Amino acid sequence: MGALVLRRFGALLAVLFGLACIVFVLQTVIPSDPARAMVGANASQEAVEAKKAELGYDDPLPQQFTQYLQRLAQGDLQSSLRTRNEVTADLREFAPATFELAFSAFVLAVAMGLGLGLLLAGGGRAGRIIRIFLIGGASVPAFLTGLLLILVFYSWLGILPASGRVGDNFIVPDGPTNLLVVDSIIGGTPDLTLDALKHLILPALTLALLPALAIARTLSTSLTQVEREDYVRTARSKGLTERTVLLKHALRNASGPALTMSGLQVGLMLGGVVVVERIFAWPGIGLYIDQSIAYSDFPAITGATLLLGTAYVLVNFFVDLTQAWADPRIRTV
Amino acid sequence: MTGTGPVLDVQDLHVTFASSGGDVHAVRGASLQIAPGEVVGLVGESGSGKSVLGLTALGLLPRKPEPRLEGVVLLDGLDMITATDEDMRARRGTDISAVFQDPMGSLNPSMRIGAQVAEAAGGATDEEVAEMLAATGIPEPEHKARAYPHELSGGLRQRVMIAMALSRHPKLIIADEPTTALDVTVQAKVLDLLAAASRERGVALLLVTHDLGVAARICDRIAVAYAGRIVEEGTAAQLLQQPHHPYTVGLLASRPRLDGSIAGGDLPTLPGRPPDPRLPLAGCAFAPRCPAADAQCAGPLAIHVNGERRNECHHPGVLTRWPEGGPHAGRRDPILLKAPNPVVAPAMVRGVPPEPAVVVRGAVREFERPKPFPFAKRPAPFTAVAGVDLEVPHAGSVAIVGESGSGKSTLLRMIVGLLEPTAGDVTLGPGAPPQMIFQDAGASLTPWMPIGKQIEERLAALDVPSSERGARVAATLEAVGLPAEAQTAVPRALSGGQRQRAAIARAIAVPPALLACDEPVSALDVSLAAQVLNLLCHLRETLDIALLFVTHDLAAARAVADEVVVMQRGEIVERAATEDLFTDPQHPYTRELLAAVPEIHAMAVPA
Ligand SMILES: Nc1ncnc2c1ncn2[C@@H]1O[C@H](COP(=O)(O)OP(=O)(O)O)[C@@H](O)[C@H]1O
Ligand code: SF4
Ligand SMILES: [Mg+2]
């Protein structure tokens, strides 16, 4: 297992480097004039040139590239053109909200995927109804689901809030984690915890729905396959109950493809975050990117992209390790 | 309900699966009793319903498609046909347990061996698990208990299965082809272990197998299954020495033997195939294949019971031996095939022996091993073939035997050019390039292309003029004993034996100087295997094709080869003319291989 972790970690670094390269290439080929944007539309041509030289945009590309890597290594993502803050500082402010949302959505997606997948594989009437629901549900885009949920739970039933992280009547604590649910628990304010959770439900559900369906479908397919495996028959021949056979023998061996699918879905979710945060006015990285795009705020956009990309790669690193845990045959190759 | 009655009492069992092509009658009125502690063999060609019978007793028939069950299957008094799922579950493990065919797939790949054994035992301490493993001959049991299945060999895994099956002292173990997937050397040991363990503990055993030799080795009593019925039953000695049912005679005859009684001649074969399980049966199901069939046989079944013996033949004992030859006997006339540019080797004209089909000198093949992690030093390569010299004479026949992993297939692949040797030379003789036949015929046939087209492609590739191709395709199919309809069939539509014939047809459409066969019959039933072996011998004679034959089945080697080469760990440890090797083996490994073959003749009449 140790060698496997090392190898996967090597791959992780390589992918991150590749990501950095792609971002650099995009930055250089996309026509935009950050120097002009920084000095302002009314500044003189000389001022723009001076700013360009200062930012290093006149240097030959290889030199720009090494400088870019050096800055990255030091965690320096330059300053945002819009907010004039360090991009890292901006991200620190916005990232926790996104993390809280994405993490909840991921947990929700995996839990729903697992439950639906088991029901589906079990067949019977529940399975058939779910199957129809799955086929229909898989073609509804996230923004529509979001609007639909808002319509039902906010407009009609009025039981759940549909914008922001917390109600106006609460004072948001300052740290330590900037994850509202966690901070409010630490601070001992159950009302705030409840309110934060309520605010989480709709956006997290919107974000989780499609991934949950994909995970459920993958899981039920591999469960149906595993059901036919000889070792499942062996397990039955030992006189185990159906429940033990399913949970102890079938599920773990069927989890590989579902785990891979979960990892892939994280990518989709991180993309979906931009849309969902906008719908629910969720003050996270998605909203930050959305606003930065309007300004051609390149440092901000690349910084946020790098962060989301890194998150994606990291999640898949852990998915790989979980898979190796679930299937000992992977560990030895 | 326990007592002196049989542990398993099957009476007039019918099992039918609904399928889109009509109902599949897997079992059609089988009856079988097993007394406590008795070791019974259930023998028959594949598809005869053996496994379905075993699974019915276990209450583990697949649920989809839902099988229809009629009759009575009493497991120690409980009727497994009417019992609830929960009642049957409660009996499994404690009253009845199972050992399945494929040790690779029968153990949970993500659970440690020890945990699986403990689970089978209904909970056990580490010491108890180690004891159970040790009792089935597993070395270093404490250590192996912590291993995962993929870290053990097939033989050890099957021992683990046996340990699990024995763990709760059941009254009956169903062992379904428990050694079929194992190497010959291991087969005998696992079989003996199974028999010894059940005899010691007084556990009854139902051994399901397609190999009469395997059953003969350990069983008190043997039941022969055909088309879902038990057509003959008796003590092992009775059945082997004095079979009453012609099918039993055929099964006995088509088994290649080590005593060489068939060497040189044809292996007798059972022509034809078992009846379609979807069609209704009238009269004796074996009639279409039976040399002794007459008008009476189409009438109602004749069931004879005499003490321990029972058979369902109108003329029990009519056949004492199976008539000579298979479907190809008596058709030795030259087959209508010729090489594209017939080379009348000048050497032959001058009386000089023709050049060998292939000469191998000092062949070595290494495989790189993966690095354990990215910057590690690359481990030393694995040597699959370690310096081999070999020569196959013109139209000669050489068999390479040895257990799996001994480098046989690697050597073969180098000879036909599928692999580059790391060192050494392979020199091919004149004539069309060598062709290869694989164990899995499906692997060498294009799945979506009709057989005729595939043969035609081969002809085109070797510049046979298009005007001749149609006739050549037809002649080739005939030569390998395939019906003309096979021309338009895709591989999926053919049976295993037919697919192997089709693969052979494609390989010999333009007769190669050398036909390399990698375990060509090990996936086939005995009788089909015999037919394919005969076919290969005939093709060699009529078309002057040299055969190079890789197998772990010594009897098959004896049936086809002039010379046998024994490989172990990448090296040739013995080579000899076939007769000499079997009568007077020199190398200890050869002797071990020979001793391991389950043999009807080697069987002492059970006490
Ligand atoms: N689940 C199933 N569905 C449909 N047909 C089946 C099923 N299982 C077995 N059969 C059919 O039943 C017959 C007997 O099969 P089986 O018991 O496996 O034979 P054997 O073990 O003697 O090789 C075959 O024709 C097979 O195709
Ligand atoms: S009943 Fe007739 S056809 Fe059937 S096995 Fe006996 S002799 Fe042959
Ligand atoms: Mg079977």
Describe this structure in words.
The complex is a heterodimer of chains A (333) and B (607). With 333 residues, chain A is an all-alpha fold. Chain A has a single domain, classed as MetI-like fold (Orthogonal Bundle), CATH 1.10.3720. Chain A has 14 helices and no strands. With 607 residues, chain B is an alpha/beta fold. Chain B has a domain at 393-416 and 431-595: 3-Layer(aba) Sandwich (Rossmann fold). Chain B has an 8-stranded mixed β-sheet, sandwiched between helices. In chain B, strand 9 (221-226) and strand 10 form a beta hairpin. The longest helix of chain B has 18 residues, at 184-201. Chain B is globular and about 70 Å long. The A-B interface holds A 3-4, 6-7, 10, 229-231, 233-241, 248-249, 252-253, 326-329, 332-333 and B 58, 60, 89-94, 97-98, 100, 102, 105-111, 119-120, 122, 148, 150-151, 161, 164, 370, 372-374, 376. The site of adenosine-5'-diphosphate has 15 residues of chain B, from strand 2 and helix 1. Iron/sulfur cluster binds next to loops of chain B.
